[in-house]
């Protein structure tokens, strides 16, 4: 009996992205899911859940055969077009960062099920940088120091790199970075 049950379970294969999926705030994001099974199906159910860190998964949208059942709170944000199990999120917000869980149930001779988790990270585009000079005149003769301060108003995973005449600057006797 146990061997038979294990064979039934492996009959449903669910394929999702294996790496973290990065989306851009305000843009749509497509979570691609493929599934296949080697059984006769009378009913196919797809369920999507969302899990933030330290919280229980919450229901987003699901389908049974061709009928879609959205959570009314999110009905305009998430799209599922069965029998495709892929999920479209539009628009993407910072609060959408977390784990998305897809579960597929196939009813035929018995019920086979599989679920997978997709990690989503939301990136905020970096705004144009602003550079402030101290002293504000930008003029220093011979011995004085000049400070260039670069800031951006918004953006995730910001990396700063200073260059002079197209060459990267590195810390040394003439340059210090903070």
Automatic annotation (TrEMBL):
<keyword id="KW-1133">Transmembrane helix</keyword>
<dbReference type="Pfam" id="PF07686">
    <property type="entry name" value="V-set"/>
</dbReference>
<dbReference type="GO" id="GO:0030496">
    <property type="term" value="C:midbody"/>
</dbReference>
<dbReference type="GO" id="GO:0007098">
    <property type="term" value="P:centrosome cycle"/>
</dbReference>
<keyword id="KW-0472">Membrane</keyword>
<dbReference type="GO" id="GO:0005813">
    <property type="term" value="C:centrosome"/>
</dbReference>
<keyword id="KW-1015">Disulfide bond</keyword>
<dbReference type="InterPro" id="IPR007110">
    <property type="entry name" value="Ig-like_dom"/>
</dbReference>
<feature type="domain" description="Ig-like">
    <location>
        <begin position="129"/>
        <end position="178"/>
    </location>
</feature>
<keyword id="KW-0812">Transmembrane</keyword>
<keyword id="KW-0732">Signal</keyword>
<dbReference type="GO" id="GO:0005819">
    <property type="term" value="C:spindle"/>
</dbReference>
<protein>
    <submittedName>
        <fullName>HECA2 protein</fullName>
    </submittedName>
</protein>
<dbReference type="InterPro" id="IPR003599">
    <property type="entry name" value="Ig_sub"/>
</dbReference>
<dbReference type="InterPro" id="IPR013106">
    <property type="entry name" value="Ig_V-set"/>
</dbReference>
<keyword id="KW-0325">Glycoprotein</keyword>
<keyword id="KW-0963">Cytoplasm</keyword>
<keyword id="KW-0393">Immunoglobulin domain</keyword>
<dbReference type="InterPro" id="IPR036179">
    <property type="entry name" value="Ig-like_dom_sf"/>
</dbReference>
<dbReference type="InterPro" id="IPR013783">
    <property type="entry name" value="Ig-like_fold"/>
</dbReference>
<dbReference type="InterPro" id="IPR052280">
    <property type="entry name" value="HEPACAM_domain"/>
</dbReference>
<dbReference type="GO" id="GO:0005794">
    <property type="term" value="C:Golgi apparatus"/>
</dbReference>
């Amino acid at each position: 009996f146990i061997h038979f049950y294990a064979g039934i379970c492996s009959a449903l294969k669910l394929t999702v992205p294996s790496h973290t999926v990065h989306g851009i705030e305000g843009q749509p994001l497509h979570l691609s899911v493929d599934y296949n099974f080697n059984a006769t199906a009378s009913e196919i159910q797809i369920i999507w859940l969302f899990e933030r860190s330290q919280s229980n998964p919450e229901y987003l949208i699901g389908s049974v055969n061709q009928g879609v059942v959205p959570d009314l709170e999110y009905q305009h944000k998430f799209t599922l077009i069965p029998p495709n199990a892929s999920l479209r999120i539009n628009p993407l917000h910072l609060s959408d960062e977390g784990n998305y869980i897809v579960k597929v149930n196939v009813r035929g001779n018995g019920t086979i099920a599989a679920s997978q988790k997709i990690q989503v990270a939301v990136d905020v585009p970096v705004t144009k940088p602003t550079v402030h000079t101290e002293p504000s005149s930008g003029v220093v003769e011979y011995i004085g120091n000049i400070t260039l301060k670069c800031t951006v108003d918004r953006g995730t995973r910001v990396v700063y790199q200073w260059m002079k005449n197209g060459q990267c600057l590195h810390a040394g006797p003439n340059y210090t970075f903070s």
